[in-house]
Amino acid sequence: MAGDAWIIGASMTKFGRYPDKDSIDLASEAALAAMDDAGATIHDIQILAAGSLMEASNMLGQRLQKQIGQTGIPVYNVANACATGATAVRTGIMAIKAGEADMALAVGVEQMGKMGLLGSAGQARSAPKGFEPSGRYGSVMSVEGVLGTQLMPGVFAQAGMDYASRHDGVGFEQFAKVAEKNHAHSALNPLAQYRKVFSLEEVMEAAMVAYPNTLLMCCPTGDGAASVVLCSDAKLKTLDPDVRRRAVKISASVLTSDPYVESDTAQPDVSTLTKRAAATAYEQAGVSPQDLDLVELHDCFATAELIHYENLQLCEPGGAGDFIDRRGPWRDGAIPVNVSGGLISKGHPIGATGVANLYEVATHLRGEAGDRQIEGARVGLTHVIGLGSACGVHVLERAAS
Amino acid sequence: MSEAKKRIPVVDYLVLEGDPHLVAQACTSCGALFFDRRNACARCGKVEFERKALATTGTVRSFTIVHRAAPNVPVPYVSSVIELDGGGVVKGNIVDAGSDAEKFELGMKVRLTTFACGLDEEGTEAVAFGFTPV
Ligand SMILES: [Zn+2]
């Protein structure tokens, strides 16, 4: 086994809407900036992992190479729902740990446009000629809205309410406070899609999407890319002192899927695999949740962030409501969570998200986060989850000296 | 010959005959329940299943009130995750109970009901299941 893998270059585009660019433009911008940040060129890179939920089946990585350098290295095109970006990074880490490469480039990108909160899930319904059972459930029509909802806002609302059903002190207001915090944090982040502060009342009185999630408690769609350059222990020793000083150690890299639980028959489980990934990551890194200076977790909806406080052991069991009530996850709290603004306000171009959260944490560990810097940050954790389900957790540490 | 109106369950795990109820495929090895066509058991990996009729009563484990939905889905409506008495977890709407958040309690008791959810050109009615507070 090789030693640790390191991040020596990191970048992200500002998240937002880029109607005049395509995925390759955004991925190129992020990749070129990450290599520049690492003091590397495409000729130093020995493996490319390219993540995009919608473009992975369309040779995204190779199309990217045709813009930034066709060097003949292996390319992995990666899709894993909202864990796509983290999976691309982990692909690079595995190649380094396996000794197949000593420098890797990982890119995550998504060009979503204004596809809307519900994506393409809503299909118009017209009277069929004759009902014919089909599919694995023998359904005779689309059952979305007929047998409950399986769309994201409702699924994550129900995941949050499931937690509320088991624990006291969790309700609409606690969920809303999560969004109040992330909107406030985003005001300090020039790369965020939105940077507007909202009061708790404004969050709660916004248009309801799927109770308890109002519009201000749901992440927007958007475009963007992020990229990291990774290298091995041995390679790092040969690099420029300035690159070594800014290097960020990847102390843990974990990917899980959802193990069987009885409630899978109703909707995918987002908690068990997150709990397992976190426990494994803390063990791999040899750090405890109390050691964390900041966390970027997957707040696709405010209800999701709240349950991940417990899943990632940031609060006592059953204490997620209390944790937000006492401002534990605010940037001046016990464990700052989503100081970037999170998916809710920084934005969520799907494939980019799991790389952008590494960029965010690495930037704090390097002491280069500007107005939003968490002073003296040494250890951070990133988390993403894709419904279905896939969970990626990484623990990052500042270089020792 | 008088012809009764033709009805078809919206999914094949809903049984309309007699007292309407849900039926699961139960793994004969570990007892895990599934509603879909199976290749093997997600819990233990074995391949034998038997049909098991599930209870028509249960408790609300979670819910959401959907205000923004796919086209042609009337809003608001209440989607819920129900734990059936004696085993089985299923998603369905809570019907005939309004859509006021304060009216819904986590842990409240519900009973299975059915409702018409579509008509094809041959006049066959699709029938779905939902739950009403007991
Ligand atoms: Zn089994």
* Coarse shape of chain B: globular
Structural class of chain A: alpha/beta
Share of β-strand residues of chain B: over 45%
What's the alpha carbon Rg of chain B, rounded to whole Å?
17 Å
- Approximately what portion of the residues of chain A adopt beta-strand conformation? 15-25%
Q: How would you sum up this structure, described in words?
A:
The complex is a heterodimer of chains A (401) and B (134). Chain A has 401 residues and is α/β, with parallel strands linked by helices. Chain A has 2 domains: 5-114 and 221-398, Peroxisomal Thiolase, Chain A, domain 1 (3-Layer(aba) Sandwich); 123-217, no CATH class. Helix content of chain A is 34%, strand content 18%. In chain A, helix 4 packs across helix 10. By secondary structure, chain B is mostly beta strands. In chain B, strands 6-7-8-10-9 form a 5-stranded mixed β-barrel. In chain B, strand 7 (77-84) and strand 8 form a beta hairpin. The termini of chain B are far apart. Bound molecules: zinc ion. Zinc ion (ZN) is lined by residues 27, 29-30, 32, 41, 43-44, 46 of chain B.
Secondary structure topology:
The complex is a heterodimer of chains A (401) and B (134).
Chain A: E1 5-12, H1 23-38, E2 47-51, H2 60-68, E3 75-78, H3 84-97, E4 103-111, H4 152-166, H5 172-186, H6 200-205, E5 208-210, E6 213-214, E7 223-232, H7 233-237, H8 241-245, E8 248-257, H9 272-285, E9 294-296, H10 302-311, H11 320-325, H12 342-345, H13 350-365, E10 379-386, E11 390-398
Parallel strand pairs in A: 2-3, 2-4, 9-10
Antiparallel strand pairs in A: 1-7, 1-8, 4-7, 5-6, 8-11, 10-11
Helix pairs in contact in A: 1-2, 3-13, 4-10, 5-10
Chain B: E1 7-9, E2 14-15, E3 21-27, E4 33-34, E5 49-53, E6 57-66, E7 77-84, E8 89-94, E9 109-119, E10 125-133
Parallel strand pairs in B: 1-10, 8-10
Antiparallel strand pairs in B: 2-3, 3-4, 3-5, 6-7, 6-9, 7-8, 9-10
